[in-house]
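User: Hey, quick favor. My workstation is busy. Could you predict this chain's structure for me?
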Amino acid sequence: MRAYSRRALLAGIGGATAAMVAGCLDSDDGGPYDAGDGQGTNVTASNGEPNSTEPDPDAAAETAIPLASEGLPVAYEFGALRDETVSGGVPQDGIPSIDDPSFEPVSDVGDRIDDGDPVFGVVIDGEAKVYPQSILVHHEIVNDALGGESIAVTYCPLTGTAMGFFRNGVEFGVSGRLLNSNLVMYDRENESRWPQMLATATEGPLEGASLQEFPVFWSPWEQWREAYPDSQVLTESTGYARDYGSDPYGSYNPRAEYYEPDSPTMFEPLAVDDRHPNKQMFLGARLPEGTIAVERDRLAEDGLIGISVDAGEAETETDPARADPESELALLAVWDERIGAGHLYRHDGEVYERGEDNDVLDESGTAHDPQELPLEAVYAFEAMWFAWIGFYPDSAVVD
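Assistant: No problem, here it is.
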């Protein structure tokens, strides 16, 4: 099996850049989301309880960064996480964020993106944008604006996580550090450090604060452009000289090299759990009641999964999809065939079934779009198995 070196892989990414060139920023509803035992854990978790550290109130009051009203769960003490943060082989901003992005309409893309190539789609206030994985693998962060909001669209190729954060004009950059193989961002206001998957500062003036998030959907290009033909698409006019036709880690179309499900990680994970291949994809959510991960392939096959969680264990029923409203946590996971992505909702105890044309039927027979069920939406994002279970070793798992 091939051995990898992130420094070698990123030699092209971290090299000299071309002169900056001017880009033009084009200025269904979105908004901020507040917020299985691991085996062989390397770092001691906080006894299953969320980290209790709260941000400095003065720093939280003074920052322009939109912060979540409640902190997200963090399973480890921040000092332990700082000790586990390592160099990714490049200096701060050695992987440059895109701060002046340029876009074009779907009709102008042509054959620049293959039908099966993954893209990251975002919809805010009825406006849609697409960020090709082939570009973000070289930059990891795009500081952008959409739907009247300034946003950061972020991607970590080592953990397979694409996540969105509101920023209120504050730019985020790549620190060059990694935690559990995951991108550690920094903000250019006061340089707090933000591991992407935690969405919580582990170091700096805002330590303990969590960011406001919005969903970013993995989707095959062909499906996204058919679902959102009016999308604006990030172009390769980034201001940097990069070979956007070459992914330094391998290929997602088809999955190969680093992205193969059973390939090794480059860096030691926070926890080791061999119930699933390292890079098997899961849809994960962190809620006040606990964290949960749903196997992506199972969700795509079943279409609907009703989930009841008690004492950290998940029970599921899929046909029809129901959940016990008396359980500690009742959820409904829904597969959206239109864009090839999953959604998660709090379950109300009703029975739901798949209808025709990607619809979800409630007990009255009313059809709903998978993105618009009359239930409370739960923020969720896709992540590789090792990354999710490393950060959340006590997560309930649906597999």
